[in-house]
Amino acid sequence: MFGKPKHHNDNQPAETRSVRRLRARLDESHQLHALTTDPLLGAVRADRFRISVTRSMWLFLAIGLGFTTTGVQAFLAGKLTPADPLWWGAWLVEPALAGILITLLRWEAEMLSAGLDVEHKAVKRLKHVLLSATLITNVWSSLCPATGTVNAGNVFLHLVVPAVVYLIAEVMPVITHRCNQARDNALASHQAPAATPPALAEVTAAVPSPVAVVESAAVVTTHARLRLPAQMVAALDAKTQDVRAQGRELTAQDVQDAVKVPADYAARIVRDLAA
């Protein structure tokens, strides 16, 4: 199931079923670790998380603006009746202001996704004017209702909901920026050189031979690409030096002799060492 069965020495006891099962689980764990720690996967996760959070924020922003529309209509219509065209026209004011705000937020999100700065006084002023108009009209209509008495709960809601809408509009660009930064950091770690000068210096100090230094640097590079554990790196380093001393190239079987990995994973290590 996991490659060709290995021939055991007569003096070496055969592996039990439990040992083979645990070894298979260990091989699978190495493969899963290499996949789940891949920086590209982290970049994809950051993008998906940003999209999910942004959609939720858009949904609740739309719900909040739907509530504030009633306050703006009550402020503008006053004691008018549905027979007056202005009563109907008052319903369009808040959707128009909200449409401008949503368009501005979409522009900010797109610019931040492209890595461009959106911090400008004109942008902030426009958002502040739009959200301040919504806040003032909602609070005013609840404090001076056209009919009935002042309701404390109604005043509270018409104060809090516009404030929450304002904060959502301020937070959404921050969410987009941070998620994009997390994605860029993941991509940068994927594209960065695998062997850093301190790590290479340690390998050089341990193996002074020029050929051995190159081989060890290749093992360090493979370790960074595949996220191999330290004990596997040491075993591969020793095996590589042994094979080079014999005057031949490292093979997948050599890798499997040094570390317990599947054949396809061993071939991948050989390819990365050759590169």
From TrEMBL:
Source organism superkingdom: Bacteria
Q: Where are the transmembrane segments?
A: 58-80, 86-105, 126-143, 155-175
Can the keyword Transmembrane helix be found in this entry's annotation?
yes
Q: What is this protein called?
A: DUF2637 domain-containing protein
Question: Any idea which UniProt keywords this protein has?
Answer: Membrane, Transmembrane, Transmembrane helix
Species annotation: Umezawaea endophytica
